[in-house]
Design goal:
Number of strands: 2
Strand content: 15-25%
Number of helices: 2
Radius of gyration: 15 Å
Strand order of the largest sheet: 1-2
Largest sheet: 2 strands, antiparallel
Number of domains: 1
Structural class: alpha+beta
Distance between the termini: 30 Å
Helix content: 10-25%
Order of helices and strands: EHEH
Shape: elongated
Length: 66
């Protein structure tokens, strides 16, 4: 299991995370002549008790994976 040692922020355990399309999707997009979107950097809250991951729909839209 990864171990992060960072100071807690006033909002809690928050880190910078980059989201990008997968390598296979990048290949398919290039083959189709579609521009591959750049990675999207966001602030993310680490919730060790969470049972799922939520991503802002704007990030999904920006990556053209909706």
């Amino acid at each position: 299991m990864p171990l992060l040692t960072l100071p807690l922020e006033p909002q809690g355990a928050v880190i910078n995370v980059g989201f990008a399309v997968s390598a296979p999707r990048q290949g398919a997009m290039r083959k189709a002549g579609v521009t591959v979107p750049s990675a999207v950097l966001v602030r993310a809250l680490i919730d060790t008790g969470a049972s799922c991951t939520c991503v802002d729909p704007a990030v999904i839209k920006e990556l053209s994976i909706n």
